Amino acid sequence: MSLISYLTTIRFQAGALSDVGNDLRELGIRMPLIVTDAGISRVGLVDRLISVLSAGQHIPVFAGTPTNPTESAVMAALDLYCSHGCDGLIAIGGGSPIDLAKGVALLSTHDGPLEQYAAILGGIPKISAAVAPLIAIPTTAGTGSEVGRAALITLEDGRKLGFISPHLIPKRAICDPDLTLGLPPALTAATGMDAITHCIETFLSPHFNPPAEAIALDGLVRGVGNIERAVAQGADRTARHEMMMAALEGGLTFQKGLGAVHALSHPLGGLKQVSLHHGTLNAVLLPYVLEFNRSHAEAKYATLRQRLGLNDSVDLADYVRSLNLRLGMPATLAEMGVPRDSFALIAKSATEDHSSATNPRPAGEADYRAILEAAYEGIPVKPGA
């Protein structure tokens, strides 16, 4: 078994799912709540998980995680957690079930309301080590939430806020690439671009953290080098292994902070008029944010080109656009059905998002509005924007 001890304990290997019972015992969890979504439950992965746990034990399952986790879903899962006397959680699925489980782990040991723990509302120091233990089992290769310190949850009033604390990092991350073998091509592409965006944004963050930058660059090379093969040949175990490692490494670098892509995709993901996939949003927004940031990160752009084996004359934004095209990703926000009349609200929310502070180029409402307009129309972001 490949065991990695970095920020948390990570089991990374095909077949790692079989050791979850040992992790429960090591963490002292006697009655876990399994948190997942309907899709994961439907394809049998929850049954597969239960089969490797204690025989004869009835384990409660919450399968009502929405595409973007909500406060109401957290409260519904919390009710199930409390009614069964649970003392820990297992999240299996993409970033949404893992983030929702973090919300349950928090509120099972901390008084509500949830809002008070949001990072932008001063909630970080309010989150203590009392958070219930969580085991995260990703079934996509993208979010990095299995090793991330944040949970993104949409509150009842529509705000999608970040809840951030080292105590929210799952106590175990079970990274079994075989669990991604059945992932459809479109979802493989979207989640893979999510991981690639994480690696790029954390590398470009101005915070000083050379170890995180090295991890981000390694994850970027793995992701870009394998995403097309993973999409075209979903049963390729090597490609799946590399994409899951790219996603993990993107998550490990969250300590350095993200940037304008996420500052925009977070509030966009909270829109009630349309359901927008986080990874797809990141893929669409990334080229436009790269254009916006170019003047403030020239040396790092040169490093990115060098690590990707690109000529100095290659424009990174155009390179990402070309990759998106080959993967079948949308090119604009208009193609995704994003309502243009939401841009003023999204731009304002982006300035308040925790990811905005670590963008290499400071961005205000007018800047975010310009990026949104360019990404909607499919036109370059003006240099002076």
Structural commentary:
- It is a single chain.
- 47% of the residues lie in helices and 10% in strands.
- It starts with a strand and ends in an 8-residue tail after the last helix.
- The longest helix is centred in the middle third of the chain and has 23 residues, at 210-232.
- The protein has a seven-stranded mixed β-sheet with strand order 1-2-9-6-5-3-4, with helices on both faces.
- It has 15 helices and nine strands.
- The model has no long low-confidence stretch (mean pLDDT 94).
Uncertain runs? none
CATH classification class of the largest domain: Mainly Alpha
Rg over C-alpha atoms, rounded to the nearest angstrom: 20 Å
Please tell me the CATH architecture of the largest domain by its name.
Up-down Bundle
How many β-strand runs?
9
Q: SSE layout and pairings?
A:
Layout: E1 3-6, E2 8-12, H1 20-27, E3 32-35, H2 38-42, H3 45-51, E4 61-62, H4 71-83, E5 88-93, H5 95-107, E6 134-138, E7 150-154, E8 160-164, E9 172-175, H6 185-204, H7 210-232, H8 237-252, H9 260-269, H10 278-293, H11 298-307, H12 316-327, H13 333-336, H14 343-352, H15 365-377
Parallel strand pairs: 2-9, 3-4, 3-5, 5-6, 6-9
Antiparallel strand pairs: 1-2, 7-8
